[in-house]
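**Reference record**
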Amino acid sequence: MNSGWSPKSVISFICVLMLGVAPLFLFFVWIERQSTLPWIPQWLGWPWIFVDGELPALALWDAGLLLAAGAVQFLLARFRASVPVRLVAGGVCAGFVVSLWQNTGIALYQLVPHAAFSAFLSLTIFWGCLGTTIKLAVRWVGPPGMFAFRFDRSIYFLTVIALLASPMMTLDRIFVSVAAFFFPLFLRRSFTLKQ
Protein backbone atom coordinates (compact mmCIF):
# COMPACT_ATOMS: atom_id res chain seq x y z
CA MET A 1 0.00 0.00 0.00
CA ASN A 2 1.42 3.36 -1.05
CA SER A 3 1.28 5.99 1.72
CA GLY A 4 2.14 8.81 -0.67
CA TRP A 5 5.37 9.71 1.18
CA SER A 6 8.01 9.75 -1.53
CA PRO A 7 11.38 11.46 -0.89
CA LYS A 8 10.09 14.45 -2.84
CA SER A 9 6.96 14.74 -0.67
CA VAL A 10 9.06 14.46 2.53
CA ILE A 11 11.34 17.29 1.34
CA SER A 12 8.30 19.31 0.32
CA PHE A 13 6.71 18.74 3.73
CA ILE A 14 9.89 19.85 5.56
CA CYS A 15 10.10 22.97 3.37
CA VAL A 16 6.46 23.81 4.07
CA LEU A 17 7.03 23.40 7.81
CA MET A 18 10.26 25.41 7.93
CA LEU A 19 9.50 28.13 5.37
CA GLY A 20 5.72 28.31 5.70
CA VAL A 21 4.22 27.06 8.94
CA ALA A 22 7.03 28.13 11.33
CA PRO A 23 7.22 31.75 10.08
CA LEU A 24 3.42 31.99 10.05
CA PHE A 25 3.35 30.76 13.65
CA LEU A 26 5.93 33.42 14.59
CA PHE A 27 3.82 35.98 12.72
CA PHE A 28 0.81 35.12 14.90
CA VAL A 29 2.98 35.28 18.03
CA TRP A 30 4.17 38.70 16.79
CA ILE A 31 0.55 39.86 16.37
CA GLU A 32 -0.50 38.59 19.80
CA ARG A 33 2.52 40.25 21.44
CA GLN A 34 1.46 43.64 19.96
CA SER A 35 3.89 43.59 16.99
CA THR A 36 6.93 42.59 18.99
CA LEU A 37 8.85 39.37 19.45
CA PRO A 38 11.08 38.78 22.46
CA TRP A 39 14.80 38.31 21.65
CA ILE A 40 14.42 37.51 17.94
CA PRO A 41 14.50 41.13 16.65
CA GLN A 42 17.74 41.83 18.54
CA TRP A 43 19.26 38.55 17.42
CA LEU A 44 18.41 39.19 13.73
CA GLY A 45 18.81 42.98 13.79
CA TRP A 46 15.16 43.80 13.06
CA PRO A 47 13.87 46.01 11.64
CA TRP A 48 16.25 45.73 8.72
CA ILE A 49 15.22 49.16 7.43
CA PHE A 50 14.50 52.18 9.59
CA VAL A 51 11.96 54.66 8.29
CA ASP A 52 12.88 58.08 9.61
CA GLY A 53 9.68 60.03 10.03
CA GLU A 54 6.56 60.72 11.98
CA LEU A 55 3.51 58.51 12.36
CA PRO A 56 2.12 59.07 8.81
CA ALA A 57 5.39 57.87 7.25
CA LEU A 58 5.50 54.81 9.50
CA ALA A 59 1.84 54.01 8.81
CA LEU A 60 2.36 54.36 5.05
CA TRP A 61 5.40 52.06 5.16
CA ASP A 62 3.57 49.44 7.25
CA ALA A 63 0.49 49.62 5.02
CA GLY A 64 2.73 49.09 2.00
CA LEU A 65 4.23 45.97 3.61
CA LEU A 66 0.78 44.54 4.29
CA LEU A 67 -0.44 45.37 0.78
CA ALA A 68 2.64 43.77 -0.80
CA ALA A 69 2.20 40.58 1.24
CA GLY A 70 -1.51 40.51 0.38
CA ALA A 71 -0.77 41.07 -3.31
CA VAL A 72 1.60 38.09 -3.39
CA GLN A 73 -1.03 35.84 -1.82
CA PHE A 74 -3.75 37.21 -4.07
CA LEU A 75 -1.69 36.54 -7.21
CA LEU A 76 -0.82 33.03 -6.08
CA ALA A 77 -4.49 32.32 -5.43
CA ARG A 78 -5.50 33.91 -8.73
CA PHE A 79 -3.09 31.67 -10.66
CA ARG A 80 -4.12 28.66 -8.60
CA ALA A 81 -0.75 27.89 -7.04
CA SER A 82 -0.71 24.76 -4.92
CA VAL A 83 -1.41 24.99 -1.19
CA PRO A 84 2.21 24.20 -0.20
CA VAL A 85 3.45 27.00 -2.47
CA ARG A 86 0.94 29.42 -0.93
CA LEU A 87 1.95 28.38 2.60
CA VAL A 88 5.65 28.89 1.88
CA ALA A 89 4.94 32.22 0.18
CA GLY A 90 2.79 33.23 3.14
CA GLY A 91 5.58 32.34 5.56
CA VAL A 92 8.19 34.24 3.57
CA CYS A 93 5.90 37.28 3.25
CA ALA A 94 5.10 37.15 6.97
CA GLY A 95 8.83 37.01 7.73
CA PHE A 96 9.45 40.09 5.61
CA VAL A 97 6.54 41.98 7.16
CA VAL A 98 7.81 41.25 10.68
CA SER A 99 11.44 42.01 9.83
CA LEU A 100 10.68 45.33 8.10
CA TRP A 101 7.79 46.52 10.31
CA GLN A 102 8.15 49.98 11.81
CA ASN A 103 6.57 49.77 15.25
CA THR A 104 4.66 52.94 16.13
CA GLY A 105 4.83 52.32 19.86
CA ILE A 106 1.37 53.81 20.34
CA ALA A 107 -0.88 51.99 22.81
CA LEU A 108 -4.55 52.77 22.23
CA TYR A 109 -5.83 51.24 25.44
CA GLN A 110 -4.86 49.04 28.39
CA LEU A 111 -7.96 47.51 30.01
CA VAL A 112 -6.13 45.40 32.61
CA PRO A 113 -3.49 47.34 34.56
CA HIS A 114 -1.66 44.26 35.86
CA ALA A 115 0.90 43.28 33.18
CA ALA A 116 1.12 39.54 33.98
CA PHE A 117 -2.66 39.09 34.08
CA SER A 118 -3.04 41.16 30.91
CA ALA A 119 -0.49 38.93 29.12
CA PHE A 120 -2.23 35.76 30.36
CA LEU A 121 -5.64 37.06 29.26
CA SER A 122 -4.27 38.07 25.85
CA LEU A 123 -2.65 34.66 25.32
CA THR A 124 -5.81 32.82 26.36
CA ILE A 125 -8.18 34.81 24.14
CA PHE A 126 -5.90 35.00 21.09
CA TRP A 127 -4.69 31.40 20.99
CA GLY A 128 -8.05 30.01 22.09
CA CYS A 129 -9.83 31.70 19.19
CA LEU A 130 -7.01 31.12 16.71
CA GLY A 131 -6.62 27.46 17.73
CA THR A 132 -10.33 26.90 17.23
CA THR A 133 -10.12 28.66 13.87
CA ILE A 134 -7.23 26.46 12.73
CA LYS A 135 -9.02 23.32 13.90
CA LEU A 136 -12.13 24.29 11.92
CA ALA A 137 -10.39 25.68 8.83
CA VAL A 138 -7.45 23.37 8.17
CA ARG A 139 -7.69 19.74 7.23
CA TRP A 140 -4.77 17.38 6.65
CA VAL A 141 -5.15 15.66 3.29
CA GLY A 142 -1.65 14.16 2.93
CA PRO A 143 0.80 14.58 0.09
CA PRO A 144 1.03 16.18 -2.42
CA GLY A 145 -1.33 19.01 -1.34
CA MET A 146 -0.86 18.29 2.40
CA PHE A 147 -3.51 20.72 3.66
CA ALA A 148 -6.94 21.86 2.56
CA PHE A 149 -8.59 25.05 3.80
CA ARG A 150 -12.12 26.27 4.11
CA PHE A 151 -13.55 29.63 5.09
CA ASP A 152 -16.98 30.32 6.48
CA ARG A 153 -18.50 32.99 8.70
CA SER A 154 -17.69 31.23 11.99
CA ILE A 155 -14.00 30.91 11.06
CA TYR A 156 -13.88 34.50 9.92
CA PHE A 157 -15.63 35.67 13.11
CA LEU A 158 -13.22 33.74 15.38
CA THR A 159 -10.23 35.22 13.55
CA VAL A 160 -11.56 38.74 14.00
CA ILE A 161 -12.16 38.05 17.71
CA ALA A 162 -8.62 36.69 18.06
CA LEU A 163 -7.23 39.87 16.54
CA LEU A 164 -9.42 42.46 18.25
CA ALA A 165 -10.36 41.00 21.65
CA SER A 166 -7.28 42.02 23.57
CA PRO A 167 -6.85 43.60 27.00
CA MET A 168 -4.27 45.88 25.37
CA MET A 169 -4.44 47.30 21.86
CA THR A 170 -1.72 49.06 19.93
CA LEU A 171 -1.98 50.99 16.71
CA ASP A 172 0.20 48.36 15.04
CA ARG A 173 -2.22 45.57 15.93
CA ILE A 174 -5.08 47.66 14.53
CA PHE A 175 -3.19 47.98 11.22
CA VAL A 176 -2.65 44.23 11.02
CA SER A 177 -6.23 43.50 12.13
CA VAL A 178 -7.71 45.74 9.42
CA ALA A 179 -5.57 44.01 6.78
CA ALA A 180 -6.53 40.58 8.15
CA PHE A 181 -10.19 41.59 8.14
CA PHE A 182 -10.20 42.17 4.36
CA PHE A 183 -7.63 39.61 3.24
CA PRO A 184 -9.81 36.46 3.53
CA LEU A 185 -12.49 38.09 1.39
CA PHE A 186 -10.04 38.02 -1.52
CA LEU A 187 -8.93 34.43 -0.93
CA ARG A 188 -12.13 32.76 0.20
CA ARG A 189 -13.10 31.31 -3.17
CA SER A 190 -9.64 29.95 -3.96
CA PHE A 191 -9.19 28.15 -0.61
CA THR A 192 -12.72 26.84 -0.17
CA LEU A 193 -12.99 23.05 0.09
CA LYS A 194 -15.19 21.29 -2.38
CA GLN A 195 -18.01 19.69 -0.43
Summary: The chain has one domain: 7-27+53-188. The first strand starts at residue 107 and ends at 110.
